[in-house]
Amino acid sequence: MEQNRLEGLRSAHIREMESRIGRVSSRVEDFLEVIVELEDKNGEASVSEIASHLAISRPSVVRMLRKMAKEGWIEQIPYRPVKLCPKGREHAEWMRERHSILFQFLTGLGIEETTAHHETEGIEHHLSENTVRQIEKMMKNFEKREP
Q1: What CATH fold (topology level) applies to the domain 90-145?
Q2: Per-residue model confidence (pLDDT) at position 26
Q3: Domain range summary for the chain, segments of one domain joined by +
Q4: First and final CA of the chain: distance in angstroms?
Q5: How far is residue 66 from each of residues 62, 70, 116, measured CA to CA in Å?
Q6: Over pLDDT 70: what percentage of the chain?
Q7: Which of 67, 66, 47 is nearest to 57 (CA)?
């Protein structure tokens, strides 16, 4: 039994290391989530608003935004609000969908909404798209069965 658990841990660690290649970091995803929400709410996302919503310093935001601009997630002009590039918008929309699916799943299990939001934030960056789609499929099957 212990050997199976150890082998499972080893396998999971190897898979995690391999899946990091090409995966969007959870930090970039956090920024994308905030930027898309601010753009949709206010029409723009300023450095100070991003810093406020992520509870980090403005210099830290500026550093990350430079990196994200180089990677093609955002357009950034110094001293101007940030704008998502199509790549950033597309990924941010997927993240919204993923969050919604996982939130519905957790609340469907009877988890209180505040806790479900918090726990969704904790797990959403670690699940593959395939896993999220399977959860979505399972939930749709349950909905069909309900009277």
Answers
A1: Diphtheria Toxin Repressor; domain 2 (1.10.60)
A2: 87
A3: 26-85, 90-145
A4: 41
A5: 6, 6, 32
A6: 88
A7: 47
Would you report the helix, strand and coil content of the chain in percent, each value rounded to 5?
75, 5, 20
> Of 84, 90, 37, which is closest to residue 65 (Cα–Cα)?
84
Name beta bridge partners: 74.
84
Q: For 26-85, CATH number? A: 1.10.10.10
What is the pLDDT at residue 53? Answer: 96
User: Position 57: which residue type?
Assistant: S
pLDDT in tens, 6-45: 777 777 666 665 555 557 888 999 999 999 999 999 999 9
What's the predicted TM-score (pTM) here? 0.78
Q: Do 69 and 75 contact (CB within 8 A), yes or no? A: yes
CA nearest neighbour of 105 among 132, 145, 86, 87: 132
Tell me if residue 83 falls in helix, strand or coil: strand
Contact indicator for 47, 62 with CB cutoff of 8 Å: yes
Mean pLDDT of the chain: 88
How far does Cα 110 stand from its chain's mean position? 23
